[in-house]
Amino acid sequence: MKLYFLFSVLLLLLFQSCTDLKKPKQLDSVEALNRKFSELEQLYSNFEEFSDIQLDVSEVESRLIEYSTGDTLTFEFAQKIDHYSSISSDLEWIETQIPHIDSLLEIRGNGILTLSHDIENGVGDRSKYDENIEFESNSMAELSSYIEHCDSMLNNAILNFKELNHQVEEYSLELEKKTRNNN
To answer: pLDDT for 52-84, tens place per residue?
Structure first.
């Protein structure tokens, strides 16, 4: 009986040590997730304050609506005004995504932290660690795609603003001046 007990304990220790063989690889995977998470936080923190741009676009659009007349525009300039108008809607959409991104970053950060803690301390079901790492990896890929999409939209809106603001603003000021002079 003692021999059976001793054999059981040794067998248990052997299985215990076999699961620990995966620990370094698992910790490396979690560290890679942590680096990706830090990169996403950095990208997200680089989202420029765009409220000034929104305000400028809003003022110009209001002026265009208020003072527009039946003036004939070139096709190219009409396209510029159309692109300029899309800046506002793009920035508004991004602004609505910020609370969602904040929430997702918090959830993913806590998930990675908990997973790292569990693996380091051998807490929870060790057989699920690889599955949990895969889940966090897939979730991080989705979050990365989402933040990169928002960043791309923001950069495109800022680029369009820098390219078009001067011309469209001047046109709107000319319309305002022309309308006031006629009244």
So the answer is: 899 999 999 999 888 887 777 889 988 999 999
Which residue shows structure tokens 């990896």?
Answer: 137
List Cβ neighbours of 43 (8 Å cut-off, separation of 6 or more). 147, 148, 151
What's at 165, amino acid-wise?
N
| DSSP code at position 165 | H
Arithmetic mean of pLDDT, 72-100 = 91
CA 106 → CA 79, 102, 139, 141, distances in Å?
40, 6, 12, 15
Contact status, residue 119 vs residue 27, Cβ threshold 8 Å: yes
| H-helix segments, 22-128 | 23-45, 51-67, 75-121
Q: Specify whether the CB–CB gap between 36 and 144 falls below 8 A.
A: yes
What is the value of pTM for the model shown? 0.79
Q: What angle do CA 87, 143, 48 make, to 5 degrees?
A: 35
Dihedral sign of CA atoms 158, 144, 107, 114 in order? negative
